[in-house]
Amino acid sequence: MPYTTAAEVRKRALLKWDSLNYSTSPPAPFADETAFDNWLTNTVIPEAEKLINDFCRRPDFSEHADEVEYFDGDAFRNFVVLSKKPVITVGKLEFKKDDATWDQKSSSYYRVHGDRVVYRTVLPKGFQNIRVTYSWGFPEVPLDVSYAAGEIVARFVQKRVVYKMGPLVRVEDFRVQLANPDVFTDDLRSTLDHYRRDMASMA
Asked: Is the dihedral of CA 11, 15, 16, 17 positive or negative?
């Protein structure tokens, strides 16, 4: 799922498709609105998404189904902590039996609290003998993330218009410097801060 769209960027930046053109005969570098939108969609917006993902220490803001994790039981604790967050639903909690098959527990045997699956008694002792299947992520890109992506790209494009008369006049020279403080500003960082993972991970 894209975090923002070319149309949203144009609306936020208050720019027309030819705002970055340095020539009108023939129009260059964008021949029409479609060419400009393609540049935003295929080049600039993906860079903004990477910037947001890196800042939030997440691989993406998509929904991931059927994630499987294995845990060791110690016959002492009654919960496991899932590594991919936020957890949407837990589909299965299973314990490995002596014959190496898996025994699925009814949902009445456990409950989910945030990223924890809490069993009604202690978890059985064993190595990688607990298996949890769950979905995690975001069913839709959060509105804060969409807003930040649209603003980052719009501010970047506005800067390019200001610099159009300077040395950067060709599309291939437009360095996607989205992390600059005057583009990825403190207010946008603050907007995204509560999506940020405490430690870098794959979740």
From this structure: negative
Write out the two tokens for 117.
Answer: 């699956």
Is 111's pLDDT higher than 70? yes
CA distance 71 to 3: 34
CB neighbourhood size of 109 (10 A): 11
The pTM of the full predicted model, rounded to 2 decimals, is 0.78
Within a 10 A sphere around the Cβ of 156, how many other Cβ atoms? 25
Q: Cα–Cα–Cα angle for 114, 118, 122, nearest 5°?
A: 155
For residue 31, the cross-strand partners are: none
Sign of CA dihedral 84, 86, 92, 98: positive
- How many whole angstroms from its chain centre is CA 139? 11
- Give the pLDDT band of residue 201 (cuts 50, 70, 90): very low
**Shortest CA distance to 45 belongs to which of 185, 187, 151?**
151
The CA distance from 192 to 187, in Å, is 9
**Which string of DSSP letters, residue by residue, matches 21-36?**
-SEETTEES-SSHHHH
User: Sign of dihedral through CA atoms 8, 9, 13, 16?
Assistant: negative
Query: Distance of alpha carbon 203 from its chain centroid, rounded?
Result: 10
Query: Does residue 19 have a pLDDT over 50?
Result: yes
pLDDT of residue 54 exceeding 90: yes
